[in-house]
Amino acid sequence: MNKDLLTIEHLNVGYGKKQVLFDVSLSVKEGEILGIAGESGCGKSTLARTIVGMKRQYEGTLRLETNDPQMVFQDPYGSLNPSKKIGWLLKEPLRLDRQRKWSPGEMDERVFEVLEKIELDRALLSRYPAQLSGGQRQRVAIGIALMRAPRLLIADEPVSALDVTIQAQILKLLAHLHEELSLSILFISHDLRVIWQLCENVLVMKDGRVVEYGHTGEVYRNPQDDYTKKLLSAAGIR
Question: Is the pTM of this model over 0.90?
Fold first, then answer.
C-alpha cells in the first residue's frame, strides 16, 4: 500500500479574527490524485496555501513526507513575471535551490527535459509570457513547478481560466505527468465534471468544513450530504 505523502488532521485556519477552515482532515497517498471541490469562498485556496507554507499560522496537524510541494495557480499570466523570458522563468527554481548547486549546463539540460514533459517547443524559451497562449502559459507554470522534481503538486483551479478545448489538453497533460512521474496531485476545482475526469478521490468543502470525502465514483453515485447533491445537480451529473 502506498504511504501517505500528506496528512492533515483537525486543521483550523483563520485570518485575524475570522476563521476560514474548521476541523479539516484529509490525506494524500503517493501517486494519488485527490480532488478538492466546493464553491468559491469555501476555503479551498486557503487550504492549498497552508499546505505549501504560504499561510504559516494554523492549529492542528499538517505532516508532509516531502519538503518541496509545488503549486500551480489559476491564472498563469498573473503567476509568471511578464518581464522575464520563458527560459529564465523555468531556471528560477534551480537558481533558488538550497540543496544543490546547478551549473549552467545542468540547468539547460533540466529545462529541456521539462519542456519535453510539458510538450512545448524549445523556440518558446526566448519568448515572454505575453507572447504565449493561455494554454502555453499554463504549461510553463506547470513546468516551473516540476523543475525540482516534486513528489506533490497542488493545482489550484488550474484550468478554470481556459476554454474547454485547452482545459481538456491540460487535464490530459496532468494525467500523463501523474502516470509518468508517479506524481501525487491535490487538484482544487469548483467544477465537479473536471474532478470526475481526473481524480480518483474527492473531498467536498462548504463554508470551510469537509462535508463529504471518499472515492469519486462512490461519492458521485451515492452522495450523503445535501450540499454535494446540489453541486452534482448543478453540474448536470445527477
Answer: yes
